[in-house]
Design brief:
Strand content: 5-15%
Largest sheet: 3 strands, parallel
Helix content: 40-55%
Strand order of the largest sheet: 5-6-7
CATH class: Alpha Beta
Shape: globular
Distance between the termini: 22 Å
Order of helices and strands: EEHEHEEHEHHEHEHEEHHHH
């Protein structure tokens, strides 16, 4: 899980959200050297459902920042890799209005033309709602507008189906997950820490957060070992009984493999 591929501007807060282009390229090289092919979420689907077996790493970028287009896209293209960028559909060509004040920076976002060019390079565009809303704090009507509307907005721009979703702020519950599935998405990612495995519940997939300050050994530990998985397991144990997301998601039916995974959680 990445956000910005570039250098933070003076005064920007939460600078760990920025990964420099040269470090991002090192990450891509490292993944390939370890035999893990960097792919988009759609390419990963057969592996997540157990239809295919292989060593892959899904690269996701949240918010659709312009620096993804300027710096990440050329690197991915150079190394023959793909990725999924989740765009906020009503802010295309604008900036991060949802957290600019908190981060003390206005981050330029990709325009419609740039998203189309991103897709033309074989890179995937996913949905991140219309306004980067906190879905658990949104009424039913607005919830569906944020999710269905974002899908329609992006499909009108791209002319192709948009089937992948990312919950803004990592904010989700069973109601949001049902709405995402009902809108026709195939999977959704959270900010819950951990590595996804075949049979995982497809509408609450965990991710490995990559920060600009992660030193090379830490990046390797996150990707190649159970470092992130242990953090996920610890977080689940700390949650009060009956309130964790895994239990909430038992009501979302996605097949036998998913049910087994949720029962294990």
């Amino acid at each position: 899980m990445y956000h910005n591929i570039g250098k933070p501007s003076d005064g920007a807060r939460h600078r760990g959200l920025y990964v420099s282009p040269w470090r991002f390229e090192r990450h891509v090289r490292f993944l390939k050297a370890c035999g893990r092919r960097p792919v988009s979420m759609t390419e990963a689907m057969p592996y997540l459902t157990g239809e295919r077996v292989g060593r892959i790493a899904v690269i996701t970028l949240d918010d659709g920042c312009l620096d993804n287009f300027l710096y990440a896209a050329p690197i991915l293209k150079k190394h023959g890799c793909t990725a999924t960028c989740y765009a906020v559909s009503q802010h295309m060509g604008s900036f991060n209005q949802w957290d600019a004040a908190r981060l003390n920076v206005k981050k330029p976002l990709m325009s419609r033309d740039q998203l189309r060019e991103w897709a033309s390079m074989g890179l995937e565009v996913g949905a991140h709602t219309q306004t980067h809303a906190r879905l658990t704090q949104t009424g039913d009507y607005r919830l569906n507008e944020e999710i269905d509307g974002c899908k329609s907005d992006l499909e009108a721009v791209l002319g192709t189906p948009v089937t992948q979703f990312s919950y803004p702020h990592g904010n989700w519950d069973s109601r949001a997950a049902h709405a995402v599935r009902s809108a026709g998405f195939r999977a959704a990612v959270t900010t819950r820490r951990g590595r996804s495995r075949p049979g995982d519940e497809l509408f609450c997939l965990p991710r490995v957060k990559v920060r600009g300050c992660d030193f090379p050994l830490l990046f390797a530990l996150k990707i190649l070992t159970r470092y992130e998985d242990r953090h996920q397991e610890s977080a689940l144990k700390r949650r009060a009984p009956g309130r964790n997301h895994g239990q909430e998601m038992r009501s979302v039916h996605h097949g036998q493999g998913s049910r087994r995974q949720l029962q294990r959680i």
